Amino acid sequence: MSTNIITTVWKEKSQFESDNPSGHAFTMFDKSQDNGTVVGFAPKALMLSSLAGCSGLDVVSLLTKMRAEVADFKIEVTGELTDEDPKFYKHVKVDYHFTDSELQPEKIQKAVNLSVTKYCGVMEMFRQFATVEIEIFLHAV
């Protein structure tokens, strides 16, 4: 079994610095507060980034193994929060955008499906509290 440990430290106002098992740190804050010139991230939005990163890493690895690399790949994640506290994501839409002059739709679909249903643990966590919708967009150049 693998374990990750992070430490998050209050810095000032509504700002926290969190480390990562990779050894890097980042700042989180309440975006509704005045944080001056501090560059940071909102905790709930980071959850959406984690979802995109987890699935994206799977998809890139799978496409490489399938010899179906693409020129460009991006993921847009939209999360809809509940109205009442504690606010959490109740619906999440994950849009996968692939661009290349020689797209291989079947392999792309297979890679995304494997990530969504088998490999991405963050996706599985999201499914515990939100409905997750997936859509694939193919852009030929």
Description:
The protein is an alpha+beta fold and 141 residues long. The protein folds into two domains: 1-41; 43-140, K homology (KH) domain (GMP Synthetase, Chain A, domain 3). Helices cover 32% and strands 33% of the residues. The chain is built from three helices and six strands. The protein has helices at residues 43-65, 105-119, 121-127, and strands at residues 8-12, 15-19, 25-29, 72-81, 89-100, 131-140. It has a three-stranded antiparallel β-sheet with strand order 1-2-3, with no helix packed on it. A three-stranded mixed β-sheet has the order 4-5-6, covered by helices on one side. β1 and β2 (15-19) form a beta hairpin. α1 crosses α2 (105-119) and α1 (43-65) crosses α3. 15% of the residues are buried. The model has no long low-confidence stretch (mean pLDDT 95).
Topology:
Elements: E1 8-12, E2 15-19, E3 25-29, H1 43-65, E4 72-81, E5 89-100, H2 105-119, H3 121-127, E6 131-140
Parallel strand pairs: 5-6
Antiparallel strand pairs: 1-2, 2-3, 4-5
Helix pairs in contact: 1-2, 1-3
Low-pLDDT sequence parts: none
Q: What value does the Rg take, in angstroms?
A: 17 Å
Tally of individual domains: 2
Most strands sheet: 3 strands, antiparallel
The fold-level CATH name of the largest domain is: GMP Synthetase, Chain A, domain 3
N- to C-terminal distance: 44 Å
What CATH first level of the largest domain would be assigned?
Alpha Beta
Indicate the overall shape: globular
Strand order of the largest sheet: 1-2-3
Average pLDDT taken over every residue: 95
Strand content: 25-35%
CATH homologous superfamily title of the largest domain:
K homology (KH) domain
Q: Quick one: how many beta strands?
A: 6
Total count of helical runs of at least 4 residues: 3
Structural class, by secondary structure, is alpha+beta
SSE pattern: EEEHEEHHE
Proportion of residues in helical segments: 25-40%
